[in-house]
């Protein structure tokens, strides 16, 4: 029965992939689907749900229930919110919720939440000073009333959002997914002769909770510390973390976090902080257990009110990933002593580039997002993967689809030799992309370039080395000369075909002493071009170790 619920959520997920309008949803899969009980607690979610959506959707659903009690809901109603403090941390993430009726009462709630391409407001997230500049705010509201779209709300969104046909197409895709899930849930309950889901909810959530608590008890009780730094605004900020393991519970305390910023949307709501702080523990301790509300009951997350990790409204939050994505590696580092076999070194973080303008061929407005990943951090058992998005579970954007949807050419996407952090297990390689406009004619195309982790090497675990850091540049396509250094982020006008955006995504950090790397793996690295012969000798000590090995073989 539990597996059947997961299959329902999976069919919802597939519905969105088939019907969504935007590439960020249909191709990069920056969304998730879940089934929740009438109290707003998660029962099951799609396998590819975004971690932050899985953990914040229940908060959004509970806020909707508070405004519209379950007893007041009607068949055909659909609800929406994008409140960053109630949902996923910034206005781009829309939560769409549909009640499921069975035998004339609400037995479940279907939820789909995803990142739409635009929500209005400023495109310059590094220079906004408050939430009101970042786009249209949608409190808990009815999107559809008894099967009829709320025309006023749809019109308001259409007139305040760039490329609104695409965004509203995604919204209707979410509605369709929820309706599909609702129909499958009713069939499921009829088949099993169920009146409600209370007993099943209790069982599956309790099983997951028990599995997590059992896993926590296997850790050594203690207080563990770590810190990590970032620099999205050009200056370094440090985030201390104290993790307390006691019995079958874990507390994560971010006391000492920097104050919320006045300028730049890099602040995190507590809902978003909680999601990114607890998700890595789920990955570490019970990776084989299907996720639901029970998995996260043993965890408590604290952050000072008014800090960058628990900001107060109306702080700007549009770029909250540029802070929140640093939480998972901080948690891994803190728990590396307690659970070295399941932690992971720092990963080169993803980057989201945006391109906005008008097509010369059609005159139509386009606004497309290109999502790219760097190198994954290595672990005790594996090398990091290359070109992987972590700690998000989204997919790298399809370059071919991106080019068909916009007047943009992607000239290169390549792995960079020696960009993965050295270690007994090597970090995944960093990635370089080079992009320009296709046609010389027409108005300037705006490119938002946001390299993550510029000049910020992060040491690996247990002696692993940092990976190559990120960069963003504008180059001359004709001679390779650098026209502009984008620093930690810039909005650039591409006025001709000679200006080429070059974005380098960071490599992952290594795990363990590089001089202990298996020589066969190292030789293969050199053959594949992942590691240069020079680095193999100077950093990994291949020449010296190879000589010793050959001498030993000769003696034998």
Your description of this structure?
With 556 residues, the chain is an alpha+beta fold. The protein contains 13 helices and 20 strands. The protein has a seven-stranded antiparallel sheet with strand order 2-1-5-4-3-6-7, with helices on both faces. A five-stranded antiparallel sheet has the order 14-15-20-17-18, with helices on one face. A hairpin with a 5-residue loop joins β17 and β18. It is globular. The C terminus is likely disordered.
Helix residue percentage: 25-40%
Main structural class: alpha+beta
Q: Strand order, biggest sheet?
A: 2-1-5-4-3-6-7
Count of runs of 4 or more consecutive helical residues: 13
The whole-angstrom Rg is: 24 Å
Beta-strand share of residues: 15-25%
Largest sheet: 7 strands, antiparallel
Low-confidence stretches: 547-556
What is the straight-line distance between the termini?
A: 61 Å
Shape: globular
User: Average pLDDT, to the nearest integer?
Assistant: 95
- DSSP summary, beta strand count: 20
Key features?
five-stranded antiparallel β-sheet; alpha+beta; 20 strands; globular; 556 residues; single chain; seven-stranded antiparallel β-sheet
Fold topology:
Layout: H1 2-19, H2 23-26, E1 31-36, E2 42-45, H3 51-67, E3 78-81, E4 93-102, E5 105-115, E6 141-145, E7 148-149, H4 151-158, H5 164-192, H6 198-217, E8 222-230, E9 237-246, E10 249-253, H7 270-285, E11 299-302, H8 321-324, H9 327-335, E12 351-358, E13 365-372, H10 399-405, E14 408-415, E15 431-437, E16 445-449, E17 471-476, E18 482-485, E19 490-494, E20 499-505, H11 519-528, H12 533-538, H13 542-555
Parallel strand pairs: 10-11
Antiparallel strand pairs: 1-2, 1-5, 3-4, 3-6, 4-5, 6-7, 8-9, 9-10, 12-13, 12-16, 14-15, 15-20, 16-19, 17-18, 17-20
Helix pairs in contact: 1-5, 3-7, 7-9
């Amino acid at each position: 029965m539990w597996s059947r619920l997961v299959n329902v959520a999976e069919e919802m997920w597939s519905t969105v992939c088939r019907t969504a309008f935007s590439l960020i949803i249909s191709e990069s899969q920056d969304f998730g689907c879940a089934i929740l009980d009438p109290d707003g607690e998660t029962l099951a979610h799609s396998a590819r749900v975004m971690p932050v959506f899985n953990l914040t959707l229940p908060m959004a659903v509970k806020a909707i229930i508070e405004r519209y009690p379950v007893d007041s809901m009607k068949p055909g109603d659909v609800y929406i919110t994008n409140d960053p403090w109630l949902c996923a941390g910034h206005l781009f993430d829309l939560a769409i919720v549909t009640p499921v009726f069975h035998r004339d009462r609400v037995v479940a709630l279907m939820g789909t939440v995803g990142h739409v391409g635009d929500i209005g407001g400023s495109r310059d997230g590094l220079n906004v000073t408050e939430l009101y500049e970042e786009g249209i705010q949608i409190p808990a509201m009815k999107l559809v009333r008894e099967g009829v779209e709320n025309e006023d709300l749809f019109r308001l969104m259409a007139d305040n959002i760039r490329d609104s046909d695409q965004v509203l197409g995604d919204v209707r895709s979410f509605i369709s997914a929820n309706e599909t899930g609702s129909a499958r849930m009713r069939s499921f309950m009829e088949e099993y002769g169920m009146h409600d889901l209370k007993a099943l909810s209790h069982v599956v959530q309790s099983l997951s909770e028990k599995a997590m608590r059992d896993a926590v008890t296997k850790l050594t009780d203690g207080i563990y510390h770590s810190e990590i730094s970032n620099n999205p605004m050009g200056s370094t900020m440090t985030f201390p973390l104290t993790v307390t393991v006691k019995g079958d519970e874990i507390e994560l305390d971010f006391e000492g976090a920097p104050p919320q910023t006045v300028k730049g949307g890099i602040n995190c709501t507590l809902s978003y902080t909680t999601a990114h702080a607890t998700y890595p523990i789920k990955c570490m301790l019970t990776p084989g257990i299907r996720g639901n509300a029970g998995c996260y009951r043993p965890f408590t997350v604290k952050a000072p009110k008014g800090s960058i990790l628990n900001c107060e409204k109306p702080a700007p939050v549009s770029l909250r990933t540029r802070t929140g994505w640093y939480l998972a590696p901080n948690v891994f580092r803190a728990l590396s002593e307690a659970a070295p076999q399941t932690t992971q070194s720092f990963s080169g973080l993803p980057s989201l580039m945006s391109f906005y303008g008008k097509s010369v061929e059609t005159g139509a407005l386009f606004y497309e997002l290109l999502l790219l990943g760097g190198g994954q951090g290595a672990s005790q058992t594996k090398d990091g993967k290359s070109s992987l998005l972590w700690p998000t579970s989204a997919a790298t954007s399809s370059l071919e689809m991106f080019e068909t949807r916009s007047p943009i050419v992607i000239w290169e996407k390549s792995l960079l030799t020696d960009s993965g952090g050295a270690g007994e297990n090597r970090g995944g390689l960093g990635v370089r992309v080079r992009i320009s406009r296709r046609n010389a004619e027409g108005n300037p195309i705006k490119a938002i370039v946001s390299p993550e982790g510029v000049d910020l090497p992060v040491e690996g675990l247990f002696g692993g080395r940092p990976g190559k850091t990120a960069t963003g540049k504008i180059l001359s396509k004709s001679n390779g000369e650098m026209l502009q250094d984008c620093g930690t982020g810039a909005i650039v006008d591409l006025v001709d075909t000679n200006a080429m955006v070059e974005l380098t995504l960071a490599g992952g950090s290594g795990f363990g002493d590089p001089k202990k790397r298996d020589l066969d793996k190292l030789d293969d690295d050199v053959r594949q071009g992942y590691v240069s012969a020079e680095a193999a000798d100077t950093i990994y000590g291949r020449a010296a170790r190879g000589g010793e090995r050959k001498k030993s073989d000769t003696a034998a």
